Amino acid sequence: MFRCVADAGERGYLFPPKPDRRRSLSRLVVRAKSRLLSSVADLIVGAGWSAIQRVRPATRLLSPALLRPFYQVDSAMNVFELARTLIDIESVTPNEERVGMFLYDHLAGLAARFHGTLEMIEVEPHRSNIFAQFGNAPVVTLSTHIDTVPPFFASGEDADFITGRGACDTKGIIASMIHAAEQLLEAGERDFGLLFVVGEERNSAGALHAARHPRGSRFLINGEPTGNKLALGSKGALRYEITARGRMAHSAYPELGDSAILKLLDVLESVRAIPLPVDDVLGPSTLNIGTLSGGRAPNVIPDEARAEVFVRLVNGSASTKALMKAAVAGRAELLEVLEIPALRLGSLPGFDTDVMAYTTDIPAFQGAWGTPFLMGPGSIHVAHTLHERVPKRDLLEAIEIYKRMVRQLKYEQN
Q1: What is the bridge-based pairing of β-strands 230-234 and 353-356?
Q2: Dihedral (C-alpha) 194, 195, 196, 197: value to the nearest 10 degrees?
Q3: How do residues 177-209 score in pLDDT, each as one tens digit?
Q4: Domain spans of the chain?
Q5: Superfamily the domain 3-233+345-411 falls into
Q6: What would you measure as the largest C-alpha separation in the chain, in angstroms?
Q7: Architecture in CATH for domain 236-340
Q8: Is the peptide bond before 148 cis (omega within 30 degrees of 0)?
Q9: Which residues are marked as active site?
């Protein structure tokens, strides 16, 4: 039986002394290679062992005797197998429940072997952060997110790469972090943790929740694809929604209407001409017009149009905000949706470094999990694409780098 942990409104579960074999079913079905087993994976993972008891065909096809040979397979997964298993569990934001269940079950083995504590911390219904702690209060926490961008596509593998949605952002990173943790534990290391959070790709809901419920960590190693280089900084984000309004009319008589789309195009032309700042370390700020929508029909003068604009910040936002306001100049509505500041991050001796142009969960943690560092295998250039992949050599190298970082932060920076 799991013991419930109630603390400041959060819900969690501590790992029991002996693992519940029935909860292992989620990871076993997900990893099964059989098309037959995979076809009922969603049912079983979503509803648990009781689903087998309720559905007679599934009872016949997936008897305990049939599944027994798979019970211990997960504990022997190499990093490539673990990465592929994670990739094959669809977790497009906000569908993180199944991958969270799998990670909880998978980490249960480490918690049992090394007397760790394992928590499933509810962020929202059916969305939970997963936190494993070994030893006393963690000095260092390895962390990344478990959600992905759409669309989902399954894993693949060749001699050099693991492919699939989340391969580098960040299912491969999770696999490397877990293997690094296991090797550290086998070498006698303690006082560190693993934290896997929901919602990074949309609003950092998991990191924001974790910031309200810290566990005493002094250093946070955040995983994102950096080519296994330690990031010296990352750009911030400033997102706007611009809405133009007009008046509908028959397209044969445009003088009777007022085209919102033409207004918006004029505004966006001014927005594109904004002189954006440049930073000595982070480089140039960039602006992307990401979405455009509007209009009713081809033969109707449009009465509304909107666009979403994303600016990558490299310094304070005040000057960029003033330029955006001047570019719109009352011709449309300018709504600020999101702001995340640009970050300067620390470095460690003996590690290659680089600068990242993207935004991470680090600002959402608000320092509550300690001084942040940013490092992970794979290239951001293939993240969010239909060609997402991570080099196998990067995954193996990341295991060693994460181990070095944990030890260095524990003993040299402490």
Answers
A1: parallel
A2: 180
A3: 999 999 999 999 999 999 999 999 998 999 999
A4: 3-233+345-411, 236-340
A5: Zn peptidases (3.40.630.10)
A6: 79
A7: 2-Layer Sandwich (3.30)
A8: no
A9: 200
